[in-house]
Every structure is written in structure tokens, then in C-alpha cells.
Design brief:
Shape: globular
Pfam families: DinB_2
Helix content: 40-55%
Strand order of the largest sheet: 1-2-3
Number of strands: 3
CATH superfamily: dinb family like domain
Number of domains: 1
Protein name: DinB-like domain-containing protein
Largest sheet: 3 strands, mixed
CATH architecture: Up-down Bundle
InterPro entries: DinB-like, DinB/YfiT-like
CATH class: Mainly Alpha
């Protein structure tokens, strides 16, 4: 996850960004301390509140997608609000699949997902904001429903990424929340309170 999407462009291409350098930063530390950029602290949230908190994210993104500048990049190397929203929509889909996989198979193995490659393949910058808002909301509702329906005894079930990072069902939800909150701060600006929590 990065809030500065450094996208190299193909020669002569005005709108088709090439693949950026691979993301190498391990963001799992956000499960143990607050994020200095967006201020999100996963430790502040009760596990029983994960579902309702996830469900509350879609309206904020729908508002972002009504902005007049939704398709404009603030800088050539930084995604537009539309591109970030497309990414978040697809993050909901990926995390929904991973949450269901953990529930079906303790010690599940997650398939890799390259968000930057997805952005290029699906041409995020050309998508319709209204359609993206509806798709994002539907996927958000689905993930929230998965967390709402999971019995408490499943919250400790595990899933493992290909890089060896281990998540429980509960920590997967916390990690998802940070991802979506962080990208919301990417497009709206970080909250003032983060200066005290960094």
C-alpha cells in the first residue's frame, strides 16, 4: 500500500501508465501501532465492531466519487480519487475472498494479488465513477456481511500470504480497515489528529 503511486509512463502515452516499481513495504505493522499518516489505530476497535465499521466505509467513498475532480490526478505520479476508489473496490473483493477462505480452511493460503497490475489491466482511470460507487458499495456490504456472520470462535482462524505474513480472521478485518481508511486519507487529506499519534 502506498499513497504516492509512482507510475512510470510509456513513451508517447498520455493516459496509460506502465507498471510501477513493486511494492516492497510490509504494512502489517499497522496491526500493532497507529499509522502516522492516516491516524488509524486498529487496536482501538473491538472485534465485535468490525462488521459495522467496514459497512460504514462505502458512503464515504461514494461521496469521494461525486467530486468534480474525481478523475484528475493531483500530480502525474499520484492516482486520482477515481483510481483509488477502483483500487478500494477491488481490495474489498480480495479481502472478502480471503475472509471466506479462512472460514473454510484454517491455516489457509492466500493467492497473490497485484493491485498495480490490476489498475493497468482494468484501466482504472477510464471507469465510470457512478458504476464504481455502486460496485464498491456492493463489495463492501459483502465483506461486512462475512464478518457479521462469522461466529466468535472463528476469529482466531489463520490465513497466510505468500510472503509468510500470518493473519487471523480478526486481524484480516483490522488490516482491511486500515487499507481503506488510509486510501481515504490519500484522497481527502490526513486528519489533523494524526500529528499527535504519529
Amino acid at each position: 500500500m502506498r499513497h504516492d503511486r509512482t507510475l512510470a509512463r510509456r513513451p508517447g502515452a498520455a493516459t496509460d501508465p506502465a507498471l510501477p516499481a513493486p511494492e516492497t513495504k510490509d504494512w502489517t505493522w499497522v496491526l500493532d501501532k497507529p499509522c502516522g499518516f492516516c491516524g488509524f489505530d486498529s487496536r482501538d476497535l473491538a472485534a465485535a465492531d468490525l462488521a459495522t465499521t467496514i459497512a460504514g466505509l462505502a458512503p464515504q467513498w461514494r461521496q469521494v466519487l461525486t467530486r468534480a475532480d474525481v478523475a484528475e490526478r493531483p500530480e502525474p505520479a499520484i492516482w486520482s480519487p477515481l483510481e483509488y476508489a477502483c483500487h478500494v473496490r477491488d481490495v474489498f473483493a480480495v479481502f472478502g475472498e480471503r475472509a471466506e477462505l479462512i472460514l473454510a480452511d484454517d491455516d489457509a493460503r492466500f493467492a497473490d494479488w497485484d493491485g498495480d497490475a490490476a489498475a493497468l489491466a482494468d484501466r482504472y482511470w477510464e471507469q465510470d465513477p457512478s458504476t464504481v460507487a455502486d460496485e464498491l458499495a456492493a463489495r463492501c456490504r459483502h465483506v461486512a456481511a462475512v464478518f457479521a456472520a462469522a461466529p466468535e470462535q472463528t476469529w482466531g482462524r489463520r490465513g497466510v500470504r505468500s510472503n509468510g505474513s500470518v493473519f487471523t480472521f480478526e486481524s484480516l478485518g483490522r488490516y482491511l480497515l486500515h487499507d481503506v481508511e488510509h486510501h481515504l486519507a490519500d484522497v481527502t487529506g490526513p486528519p489533523a489528529r494524526t500529528a499527535d499519534k504519529a
